[in-house]
Amino acid sequence: MISSDPSKRNSFERCISDGDLVIVYERHDSMKAVQVKIGSEFQNRYGAFKHADWIGKPFGSKVFSSKGGFVHLLFPTPELWTLSLNHRTQILYLADISFVISYLEIVPGCVVLESGTGSGSLTTSLGRAVAPSGHVYTFDFHEQRASLAREDFDRNGLGSLITVSVRDIQGEGFPDEFCGAVDSIFLDLPQPWLAVPSAARILKQDGILCSFSPCIEQVQRSCDSLRQNLLM
Fold first, then answer.
1. Does the N-terminal or the C-terminal CB of the chain have fewer CB atoms within 10 Å?
2. Where does S-adenosyl-L-methionine bind (predicted)?
């Protein structure tokens, strides 16, 4: 489980227990998130690995299969989670995630809103950044995608820090309950300019908005909306 206490580093001295989430490192381009369960096995081309043999070993351990193959058992940091999660959508990777969190000035205790959730790559890092006293509210219009993301956050121990809701932010805007109470907002939407008026209404006076768009036309229209709604 990802640590939700920023004062504590992930320690290799902590041993793996039944029920833990582990990142199984096969090679630099192949990692899998596995829930440890007594009686289960992890199988790959290197052989079969019994979960029971993992229990009691420190995170970072190198373990061997019956065939002599090996994998490493790593602690599920947000960085490793990004590299191992199931891609339900295009995701942000570490360089962009670091940039976003830095420029949104997210620190422990912040209230952060995100739309859309997608595969939850950025959301996982946002959850760690606001811990232990902040909260992330993330929205996606796709019900199944939101449900799967919610399950992932519960698996990696961030369920108490992240609330997932199904909502079309482009069409409906953010809920009025957040009016004037939000430190930072991140938008990753096809038409982010449609969400800017709502974002402007719910941000604190010194709040920060970041919109991530791959096309210059999206950027231009978003900038126009930002000038109309935030630069007054």
1. C
2. 119-122, 140, 168, 188
The reply, when asked if residue 127 is annotated as ligand binding, is no
53 is known to lie in a ligand binding site = no
With 0-12 CB in 10 A as exposed, 13-18 as middle and 19+ as buried, what is 168? middle
Buried b (16+ CB within 10 A) or exposed e, 40-60: eebeeebbebebeebbeeebe
Summarised one tens digit per residue, pLDDT across range 158-186 is: 999 999 999 999 999 999 999 999 999 99
Is 140 labelled as part of a ligand binding site? yes
Is 168 among the annotated ligand-binding positions? yes
86-98: per-residue pLDDT in tens? 888 889 999 999 9
189 is in an annotated binding site: no
Contact 2, 78 (CB under 8 A): yes
